[in-house]
Design a protein that fits this description.
Keywords: Flavoprotein, Oxidoreductase. The chain has about 300 residues and is an alpha/beta fold. The chain has helices at about 15-25, 55-65, 120-125, 135, 155-165, 180-190, 235-240, 270, 280-300; strands at about 5-10, 30-35, 75, 80-85, 90-95, 100-110, 115, 130, 145-150, 170-175, 195, 200-205, 210-215, 220, 225, 230, 265.
Length: about 300
Amino acid sequence: MNVLDCIIIGGGPSGLSASLTLSRARRNIALFDDGTNRNRVTQASNGFITRDGIKPQAFKEIALKELENYPSVSYFNATVTEIIKDIGNERFTVKTSTSEEFVSEKIILATGIQEIFSIPSIREFYGKSLFSCPYCDGWEQKDKPLVVIAEKEEHILHLTKLVYNWSQDLVVLTNGVQLSKEGKTELQKHNIQIISEKIKELIGNDGYLQKIEFETGETIIRSAGFVAPSYYRPNQFAEKLGCDIHENGEVITDGVGRTTQKNVYIAGETERSKPSSLMISAAKGNKAAFAVNTDLTMERF
């Protein structure tokens, strides 16, 4: 079996960026992706220079088409199910959902993160009329009657202050959480309504919000808004490979993608277990690829 220079797991902006950089460095690499990218539900990816407003799938297709120019990269539409390291982390065996096995000297983890919503019906509207990032989707929602849904005071205040920049017609829903007196005062001085009743249901058609019903039976009319999900890594590859994890959930690195485990690198949202923009994720992938290529170069020269 041929030993690859690097296997990249995850075909989001960080994994695609890392693949391009390493293929241009003439490294033999394999990129695995199973189509579960977090931004797949959005209608448009905004804020990426030269690609503002592009559909996420089109963004990926352009990137994959560019990779076809480089013969040393192979793309596999498959889920990685297991990574087995040998003693000393000199080789990694990667197993996939298609029952194939690949061996590589180095691994880049770029599998991203996923959202958790405390209100299940948010998922029906997420990406069409409810969003998590004002920088990504605030412009399109400017001056609309918006809702902010969050359940931790620090998230409520931070997100509301941001969204206020795009629309001052705001209602904040805390879903049963009581804000501190200071928190209430800070929002109310800007005439922002705060509703602390528990949310029963979000109502709308085809992903577009129309109104929100509370357990009291009352409703409010809102056309869009922003939410503060919780996030998690969809796999435990970093933990199983022995990478050191900070108590806040962040994978410890040297700042350019090298983890505390030899030959294991990480890129994009996977590292911090927090959301970031496409541009930042792509830059992280580029950095991790630089680290991989530098290490291969120095080890073999």
